[in-house]
Fold these 3 entries.
Entry 1:
Amino acid sequence: MSNNIDTNRSDEGITSFYPDIIPAEEGHPTSAEFLVEETGDARGKGLRANVAFRNDQFVAKLSGVVVSETTLDTIQLTPTLHFADQWFCRFLLHSCNPNLQIDVEHLHVRALRNISAGEYLTIDYANTDDAVAFQFACHCGAPNCRRWITGRTEEIDKEGRSYLAQQTP
């Protein structure tokens, strides 16, 4: 890896997702590969691929800070430590059939299948956290959709039980 690269600014208008305070590293996500945009639905902003990725291809190297609390911007590293990335990971949408996987040991993102340019990038929040910042109804549309999203180890809360009871199988 080169230590003297600058992915924050370029002559071609390509910018890093990370602010200048985070040292630029090879593999950091840039505007050449990704676009944050409004989804037009309850999910809010999401991250789209500007380029195609092949199954098992390296997608991005992550950067951020380690914190002790779970938030919308965090990925769990250990039971007590979370990785906060409000610039890139924050915009990875949930899917029960995700197209990405986060390697928390190396802070890399890999494609779980072929991803087309223009496709939203997704992870399964139940694969990244024991408990999510808040549980929510899922409308991902995957055949295996769980309909209510929790972390790996947490029970469905009262709101979730009520929501699921109102749903038809």
Entry 2:
Amino acid sequence: MQNKNPASPDETEKQSGQTDNDLQELFLDELADLYNAEQQLTKALPKMIKAAQSEELKDALEQHLSETEDHVTRLEQVARSLDETLKSKICAAMKGLIEEASELLEEQKDKSSLDAAIIAAAQKVEHYEIASYGTVRTWAERMGHEEAVELLQETLDEESIADEKLSEIAEALANDTGE
């Protein structure tokens, strides 16, 4: 069995630089994906707000719409902090989640379960966003993009709070219908 010679210091440095470059490229691609996801969401949330029956749910969705608009702006700030521009990309995952939500709203229209369906759809979106923002924040941290880390963490925190609020509303609605 032959022992493979370890890479020379120059080769190791070259590989490390390529790895960082590849991660930076992936990072920018995922930021573009999130940027489009948030833009799609700003168009979808008003429909969910209009369909919601509970005032508490309407209020939570309206607050999240405002935050989502801030998320779009914050992603632009992340790109500027890196002297980059976000490329145009369609987020297929968000497109699918929104299509599924639309179908669910149509199926549940005029039913007492409509708000539960809206919450389920909204939480699927939140969980996708939490996973995505957590990933890009971690990558930003690994690459030393401190301003990006702070901005992405702020959004991640807001997404987590929105998810918790939706869970609280779901529990309250379940208790109201279970009594």
Entry 3:
Amino acid sequence: MATSPKKTSSTSPKSKARPKTGSRSTRRDSAAAKRPKDAIALLKADHKEVNAMFKAFEKTDDDSKKQDLASQICNALIVHAQIEEEIFYPAAYDALDDDGDDLLDEAQVEHDSAKVLIAEIQAMSVGEPLFDAKVKVLGEYIAHHVEEEETEMFPECRDAGMDLKGLGEQLAARKAELSV
């Protein structure tokens, strides 16, 4: 009497699929975080992050927190300006017309002005005359700069067909190097 062989776990194919964990939106957000951001998305995320720091600075009365926030703001802006000036702006100069060049020239002047205030803030401590005022004015400079980039320059860059994914990868890599 012939019996049919039993399937054992060693002979049955194993599924390579893993059970899904987390909600669909959590999985989607996690997958999106692993994809490289385009240059504009990365720069806008930086803008949003530093804006939150400025708001936190304005809200706190704790001198230690103010000092820490001022330091974080200055460091974030130094890195952000450097990656824009080294990578994004040169690519934008190549891609944009004369009107775009004017925007880039203005952005560079705004960076130069911000760097002066950053250096002054870094040389100061909370409680010194004008410390809070300088951080506030720096925030106003940056808000103006961000507004122009996000409403004028970035749309022109996107329309010019720049390789924003490739630039985003370069910006992220350089930012990681500078943030060490």
